[in-house]
Design a protein that fits this description.
The chain is an alpha+beta fold. The protein has 20 helices and 26 strands.
Length: 666
């Protein structure tokens, strides 16, 4: 994509929504996963049984682009609680919904991940009343995901290509879009697991996938347990000579015990020792008089490698450094250059967790390590759901295909936690993009993420509240001699209840109304309704203010009372019911109750949520449509009994109202 053709205009974000999720986490015994997190949480006796968080959705102010992100603080990793994150999300949501003027961003600058994204988010959280120093790291990373997704749509390209084109532009370098293909990811064996407790054949560590690399959570007080797990995995008949291993000790060992582990493993089986790619953070935090710095930690780790010959990778140390410097990249880079610049170190990889560090900072550190230190980056999940995993995978793909990575060893990325999720926020789930060799299809995943909104992720459908209480969403009503309407709103969820007397029987009304392909006769905003099968599946197409929408719905004709109910199964989310209650042999009352989740672009077009939409739905779109249905049926009945004059007059009235509705839609 030629960046010179992209309009560098300023954009603003519009509505933000979020919805909670809760997913079971479990090893093969169904009893949770052991030793997840850092510090004391990394001990085997600690179990994680559920993964909870929020999916955030942000739309551009014009409603033409929408993106999602994941906010899921993990106990033992993040400082904030789930409640802390929710509180901050509510403040941001309320600010964006009520602000008269919103901060703007430039899509190219945000996608360059050069600090502009953090500046933009700082502006938003500050205006929302949150001290930028206190913003939860999980909240910031979730906002980054959603905003980057919006920016890539405004830029006009999938996220990997958008990031690559803009992030490396400052170096006057580019990456062909064809570079993004399959991304290697590693499997995972958590603490307390052995091959016997993992389902599937030997050598297939999770969901029957042959990962080329497997990370084993080590760091037990008894190093014999760790050595036995590594040996069993490596020596299984189907994995010899195939699987590479890496360990994650989570700073569990003092220096003597770490050295003993390396020496003992090498003594027992040098081939297994040689298969170890690296050990993540084998040593305890190296503090002096209560103070820690990265230079002391790296010096101790270098000594570990020098003594035992086992490579190491940094993980917790990078997060500690980021926290010390309040996630300021310039300060972090200064300390890293002091330690790694101009001297040989034994560090093999930087392990980066975007859900903790943030997406922009993770990319900045990865670029620095590749360009200046010749150390590659491994991107790792924080037991995220599919949304968080997808963004982490895209960052990993961009870094793996950077202009500076061509001569460097590339490692599988730590995204294998998907295999332990009992569900997912993505549909189809993240695991469907991983092949049997443990390779992730980045192009397909990127297409699935492009333009994804909360509406498509959530299984929720709008619900009805017949008589809202004082604590329910705002309600407006309209009453005339013949037409009654009530509308309640909450965010983009709108529920409308209307009724209209009809001068013909319930049987006639139902038979005419349930002939769905005739709908456009009295609802001119509907382009077409088409039956797709005999079971009642229909496809609907409409046009409002030049914006076209379509959806598929399943419907059921009702007998007592006569009518029809429907529910969308794809596209524009809506559901409803129409009933015809007889008041005499030749009269009935038509009652319609409908709920809809308004698309972002319609919210922006109406420029006044919810009052303008309420007014339009109640007193124009539905009122005139119901009245047109009444008059169309009256005209049909008049023509059927030979009263052409009355029929033509009624059709003239319908045409006039249709023209008025069309003007209103404009």
């Amino acid at each position: 994509l030629d960046s010179t053709t992209v309009d560098a205009k300023a954009y603003a974000v519009g509505l933000m929504e979020f919805e909670a999720f809760s997913i079971t986490i479990g090893s093969s015994d169904g009893n949770g996963v052991q030793g997840i997190g850092w510090g004391s949480s990394a001990r085997a006796e600690n179990k994680l049984q559920r993964r909870e968080g929020f999916i955030v959705s942000i739309a551009s102010s014009d409603g033409k682009a929408v993106g999602v992100g994941e906010v899921s603080p993990l106990k033992g990793l993040h400082k904030e609680t789930l409640e802390d994150a929710e509180s901050q999300l509510r403040l941001i949501k309320d600010y964006l919904a009520s602000a008269a003027e919103l901060p703007t961003f430039n899509a190219e600058e945000v996608l360059s991940l050069n600090g502009s994204l953090s500046i933009f988010i700082t502006e938003i959280v500050t205006m929302a009343g949150i001290d930028p120093i206190l913003v939860a790291t999980s909240v910031k990373s979730g906002l980054e995901m959603a905003i980057l997704s919006v920016a890539s749509q405004l830029y006009g390209s999938f996220l990997p290509q958008s990031l690559a084109a803009n992030h490396w532009q400052k170096d006057l370098l580019s990456i062909p879009s064809s570079s993004f293909g399959l991304l290697p990811i590693n499997g995972l064996i958590t603490r307390g697991e052995t091959l016997e407790t993992i389902s599937g054949s030997v050598g297939r560590v999770s969901k029957n996938i042959n990962f080329g690399s497997v990370k084993v959570k080590i760091g037990n007080d008894d190093i014999d347990v760790d050595i036995r797990t590594l040996r069993e995995l490596r020596q299984s008949p189907s994995s010899v000579g195939q699987i590479k291993l890496r360990g994650d000790a989570n700073r569990a060992w003092d220096r003597p015990l770490a050295n003993t582990f390396a020496a003992e493993l090498k003594r027992l089986d040098s081939s297994i020792f040689e298969s170890i790619e690296f050990i993540e953070e084998p040593l305890m935090k190296q503090s002096l008089n209560g103070e820690w710095n990265i230079e002391r930690q790296v010096a101790a780790l270098d000594d570990f490698t020098r003594r035992g010959g086992m490579p190491y990778a940094l993980d917790e140390s990078l997060a500690d450094l980021a926290e010390i410097h309040a996630y300021n990249f310039d300060c972090i880079a200064h300390d890293l250059r002091a330690v790694f610049g101009g001297q040989e170190r034994a560090c093999t990889a930087f392990v980066l967790k975007p859900a903790l560090l943030g997406l922009e900072l993770s990319m900045q550190i990865a670029s620095l390590s590749q360009k200046e230190f010749k150390i590659n980056a491994v991107f790792s999940s924080s037991f995220d759901s599919g949304i968080g995993l997808a963004f982490t995978a895209i960052l990993a793909s961009v870094v793996d295909n950077s202009p500076y990575s061509t001569s460097m060893t590339k490692y599988s990325h730590g995204l294998g936690t998907f295999s332990m999720l009992g569900g997912d926020t993505l549909s189809p789930p993240f695991e469907t993009y991983v092949n049997q060799e443990g390779m992730l299809n980045v192009p397909s995943l990127s297409r699935a993420l492009y333009g994804l909104s909360l509406d498509e992720i959530s299984d929720r459908l709008p619900t009805y509240n017949a008589v809202p209480s004082t604590n329910e969403p705002a309600v407006t009503s309209t009453e005339s001699e013949s037409y009654l309407a009530t509308t309640s709103t909450e965010g983009r969820d709108i529920t409308v209840s209307v009724s209209l007397p009809l001068p013909f029987s319930d049987s006639i009304a139902s038979s005419r109304f349930t002939d769905l392909p005739q709908m456009s006769r009295w609802s001119p905003w509907l382009n077409s309704v088409t039956y797709l099968d005999e079971a009642g599946l229909t496809e609907w197409n409409l046009n409002i203010r030049g914006v076209k929408f379509s959806w598929k719905a399943k419907s059921e004709v009702l007998d007592e009372p006569k009518g029809i109910k429907w529910e969308s199964v794809s596209g524009l989310k809506n559901r409803g019911v129409v009933e015809f209650e007889p008041t005499s042999d030749n009269n009935c009352i038509m009652k319609l109750q409908m709920s809809i989740i308004m698309p972002y672009i319609l919210v922006s077009l109406f420029q006044g949520m919810p009052s303008v939409v309420q007014e339009f739905l109640q007193n124009k779109l539905l009122k005139w449509s119901l009245e047109m249905f009444r008059d169309v049926v009256k005209a049909d009945l008049a023509l059927e009994r030979g009263d052409n004059e009355l029929g033509d007059a009624l059709f003239g009235a319908v045409e006039g109202r249709a023209n008025a509705l069309e003007e209103a839609l404009k």
